[in-house]
Amino acid sequence: MRAAITIGHARGERPVEFDVEELLATRLLVQGNSGSGKSHLLRRLLEESARMVQQVVIDPEGDFTSLADEFGHVVIDGAAYSPAEIEALARRIREHRASVVLALEELEVEQQIRCAAQFLTALFDAPREHWYPALVVVDEAQMFAPSVAGEIAEDTRRMTLSAMTNLMCRGRKRGLAGIVATQRLAKLAKNVAAEASNFLMGRTFLDIDMVRAADLLGMDRRQAERIRELERGHFLALGPAISREPVAVRIGPVRSGLKARAEGLIALPETSPEDMASLLTLDLAADAAKASPPAPPRPAPRVEDVARSIESAERAQVDSAEQPDNTEFAARIDAIIGAMAAEEAVAFKSASSQYQTFLARCRRERLIGPMPDMAAFRRELAQRSAGLDALPDGSLARIMQLAQAVEDDLLGPFFVIAKACHAGESTVDEDALARAYGTSSPGRVRRLLEHLERQGLIVVREDFGGDRTVLVPGLEGVGAQ
Questions:
Q1: How many C-alpha atoms does 42 have within 13 Å on its Cβ side?
Q2: pLDDT tens-digit profile of 162-218?
Q3: pLDDT higher than threshold 70 for residue 401
Q4: Alpha-carbon distance 302 to 107, whole Å?
Q5: Where in this chain does the record put each AAA+ ATPase domain (predicted)?
């Protein structure tokens, strides 16, 4: 496989090539003011090398999610997963060599930083047998490796600096090649920038950034003025993966990304102030009522086909005469599910991981036979985790009847609410509700309640003091706060 890609052209239309194998060993720093073409450059580099090497993109603005359409990258919505799930995803990404985009635009700035830091740390800490080569692109790197303390919490700053330093300083032996892009070199931690051996410097105007860029490129202070005069999409390149001396390069076109936006001046509408005010305020309350609700939690990937293949293979190996009778078989299955329901860590695994754990334990117990499918397993696990088996048969039957309309991934928290409402309790154990949903985020619990209410499964009442009461229609009891 040819390891060189063309990122653009120098004067005289001479192609400027990038040695991807050398990049994996030497890392890259990209700098340029907003509008200089950094994102376009990164996209060009990613597109040209997409078929050569695994790629992981930390995307705080959602600029690179369109890579999924053209090149098959998996887009991971950072807001949709708990910290433990983000770390588990990172480990699987390294194991399966998946090219992904971690989209963080739905998170607040500090949440973006913590999510990216935990994700990068998990990539770095992957088992040695999964140290495959991968490009790790971090856009807006000054957020994740700030040169000075800002408004973020001190523990967050230490966490993200540690993750970025590990990526750039120690990542090479683990197959991780860091590519960091920043608007201002002065805002990027020096120990992170210093580890790069390849540089692409775009237009910048502040003297402190020009001087630092010129020092990295081996230029004197007078030559630094060239950096101020660069056009959009033009960069000065230097490094063992590109050129041994600075070369001006115009970045080539890309295939993915947003369509070009109209730039320049557009005539304003000739609407009178009175009519404009009417357009802005007419039926405003009705329009606000029709606002799109937040999307429900994403369903977990299905694993039934894999489970059936494993089951078929093991049936062929195990003599059916060695298996217990139906009553004993069902009791042992029930015991395994009960043991899983009592484990704290199980609730924070994905549904597919829970089901795989269940099947693995059945195989360990040499139980080969008609297993519950994933949907039946999830309902039974949610029921046991919520403690519904202690309810009278009539009450349990009523709750299970109401649960028929509940999505599988929401059964656990619904059962917790239903049990509290049935018991007439005025409060619900918030820790139990969060655990049943597999999260530690109050925001995700709040969005869960909003989603269940939109489905008509619960009724939420909140007073001016912020106290929230949750009722389940069809169940007796005063509700749960």
A1: 31
A2: 999 999 988 888 999 999 998 888 788 888 888 888 988 888 867 677 777 777 776
A3: yes
A4: 27
A5: 24-214
pTM for this entry: 0.55
Contact 458, 452 (CB under 8 A): yes
Complete domains list, the chain, with CATH: 4-251 (3.40.50.300), 302-386 (no CATH), 400-481 (1.10.10.10)
**Residues 316-372: pLDDT tens digits?**
544 444 555 677 878 888 888 888 888 877 777 777 777 778 877 877 777 766 778
**pLDDT tens, residue by residue, 345-359:** 777 777 777 777 887
